[in-house]
Specification:
Shape: flat
Structural class: alpha+beta
Helix content: 10-25%
Number of strands: 4
Distance between the termini: 72 Å
Strand content: 5-15%
Length: 121
């Protein structure tokens, strides 16, 4: 008797898991967001988990290889899974360097450091 209850319980759990999975899956690209604030290479399905809070995050402006930087996007696939679409080739601005510093030859390079401080109120 205990075995039949166990099989029924397993069947009910399997059905609920299937219903939950199909009820909460991306339907459009709008449901898909980068999984991290800076230089993300993966996506999160906002129907299953919230995207990261990037309110107080400052990212570098460079285009990192194999990330969603510079034109990459998160897309909802035909199988209802959020997937990254990383763009290959030139960055959108046509700079051609993807944020990688060019080697300096024949002269010293000057580096500027910018420090941002909170003003005391």
């Amino acid at each position: 008797m205990a075995t039949s209850h166990h099989h029924v319980l397993v069947a009910v759990v399997a059905i609920l898991a299937t219903v939950a999975w199909t009820s909460f899956a991306c339907e459009t690209d709008d449901h898909c967001r980068p999984s991290s604030c800076c230089h993300s290479n993966q996506c999160v399905d906002t129907t299953k988990a919230p995207p990261p809070n990037c309110t107080d995050v400052l990212c570098t402006a460079g285009c990192e290889h194999d990330t969603l930087d510079c034109g990459g996007e998160c897309m909802c696939t035909a199988s209802k899974v959020c997937a990254p679409h990383v763009r290959a080739g030139m960055p959108p601005d046509g700079a051609g360097d993807w944020g990688v510093p060019k080697p300096q030859t024949g002269h010293a390079r000057t580096i500027k450091r910018v420090v941002i401080r909170k003003q005391k109120g």
